[in-house]
Amino acid sequence: MNYECNPFEKFHTQWALVTAGTKESFNTMTIAWGSMGTLWNKPVITVYIRPDRHTCNFIKEQETFTVSFYNEEHRPALRQLGTLSGRDCDKVAQVGFEPEFLEDGITFRQASETFVCKKIYAQQLNWED
Fold first, then answer.
1. Is the full-model pTM beyond 0.85?
2. CA-based Rg of the chain, rounded to a whole angstrom?
3. What gap in Å lies between CA 121 and CA 46, rounded to an integer?
4. b/e per residue, 58-93, with b = 16+ CB within 10 A?
5. 45-59 pLDDT tens trace
């Protein structure tokens, strides 16, 4: 893979969607906290999802998820996708995003780039720590 990306700027300058589930049932949410780097000699993307978020259950149930980035023109849609809950409405349809079903994940046609990620570790953060 030959890909140029500044891992220190990616989450800082662009919002992203994290998406998990199946073609029949999936959810996505906007994330602005994350990182890219190396862990256990593997390229990794780390995302942070509160346990009360609807997408968290989809992440827990699946082995893979996607992290997709968007051009600035999609910022209003990403704001809405981060505010609305998939428990209450079809927020993807409301913002007009078109799902694209990949072999190992789900992204949206509006994405400028998508990373398909395999879950290798999950841990609940403790505020005391």
1. yes
2. 14
3. 9
4. bbeebeebbbbbbeeebeebbeebbebebeeeebbe
5. 999 999 999 999 999
Q: Are the C-beta atoms of 97 and 77 separated by less than 8 Å?
A: yes
Structure tokens at 47: 């995302």
DSSP 49-103: --TTSHHHHHHHH-SEEEEEE--GGGHHHHHHHHHS-TTTS-HHHHHT--EEEET
Closest CA to 20 of 124, 122, 126: 122
Three-state SS string over 105-125 comes to EEEECCCCEEEEEECCCCCCC
Which uninterrupted H or E stretch holds 28? strand 26-31
SS3 40: coil
